[in-house]
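agent: user wants the full assembly modeled, not chains individually. Plan: 1) parse entity lines 2) check alphabet per entity 3) run joint structure prediction 4) return tokens. Steps 1-2 passed, three entities, 518 residues total. Proceeding.
--- entities ---
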Amino acid sequence: MRLVALAAVLATLACAAQDGPARPSPLEGGSEFQGAEIRAMQADAFGNPGMLWVDRGAGLWRSPRGARELSCASCHGADGASMKGVSVRYPSYVASLGGVVDLEQRINACVTGNQGAPALAWESQELLSLSAFVSSRSRGMPIVPDPSRDMDAAYARGRAIYFQRQGQLNLACTNCHDASWGKRLLSEPISQGHPADWPAYRLEWQAMGSLERRLRACYLGVRAEMPPYGSPDLVALEAYLARRATGLVSNAPGVRR
Amino acid sequence: MILGKVQVPASVKAGEPFEVRILVQHPMETGFRRDADGHAIALHILDRISCTLGGKEVFRVELGSGMSANPYVAFFAIAAQSAELAVEWGDDRGDTGRATALVNVVPA
Amino acid sequence: MRRRSFFARVAALAGVAAVRVRAQGRFQPPQDITPLINEITKGVAPEKKGVEVELPLLVENGNTVPLRVRVASPMTEADHVKAIHVFAERNPRPRVASFYLGPACGKAEVSARIRLAGTQQVTVLAELSGGRFRVGPRDVLVTSGACLDDASL
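--- prediction returned ---
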């Protein structure tokens, strides 16, 4: 009888480990781990440097593009209000694309597929501006990851990467962002590693950058080989991070050190 | 065209100093950075911002490479009556940009 | 004919200095900025008061440091601040920026985001009407980032 009960408890625990990610408590966004000046810069609706990309994105949103001479606005409306709640659902499974894509990939799918234009290069001013514009429409909204079963493989892959030690420093994401958040690494507080405020203006880069760029920088940080832009591994990791950050409010475009 | 923007308060009292905020999109390349192949990235900076109120210059900045990328400056101005505030900026390659804002003066 | 800015001329002249700086890497000693100040004051001694320099005591990333300068002045036609010059002694080009004001400002207060190449003293020189000068120094501690991310990647 006791063995059956023990087996049931163990099975439940195993299920819980598979089910939801272990989340830091309390859940705190990345800006909580930046200094006061950087937090102020992010909250400054005028002075947030990322807003320059949002403004440029608003202009690009209304510009005709590609063989079809269509603007984003011609389908999605001039002010982008239809994009409210969109970025906080990404990465997402998109049936027409047959797979899980992140926000930048989704934008490019529209650019190439619907507008008939060449794909926008990763980290190009154009792609970042559109991504910043779309993400800013969800400012203040919580992360609501795609719940469909089509996401399962991506979540599993992302979770595996998150817990996998890698690089010359032999560190897994969890070693810093679960076990050591709030502690200092070379004078900097370690964050919980949430994606909510991305794309973001990073002072280190003196420019706006995508979440993929930031994740690649983490790979570099542990001296691991960086996956290429658009790699399924990066998208899977983004998917896992989004699920782990469920409910956290997005303040994109963020500002980070 | 160099993108940028200017902000003034929604309304100001005649003769009372109000803050003007300016943000311009520019890499402010110092000339000291190197690209992935090790080649020096050339110096490329926004070197001037000037501001007129009602057509008269009220403020000017000479920027060096020690100013952050995407330069931000703010200053104060006073206005006796409503007028247009016009900001112009230019870089070391002859690129320029401008933005305007209406300073709405209410009686003191 | 557009007057070539001070910085364009300095950058051209500083070509040699810049190369030497690059060879030294990012850790360079403070330079004596007195000659740069004298170029503006023409030898007139600045008063060491009346210039308030607001900078964070500790800076997370030297790329973007918020600066606010306040100079006490009635800003009248007879008595006003003409210019505010910012110097960073350990930057490869110590002259950061110059702000030109006048009575139409009402207040001699400017803000900017500047770059600081390491822990150092920032010096602000105020040029007043009537050939007067004031100066205000401020020490800043600049930490560097942790996971040293290559900016181009």
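agent: reporting back. Residues 11-20 of chain A have pLDDT under 50 and may be disordered. Chain A has one domain: 28-256.
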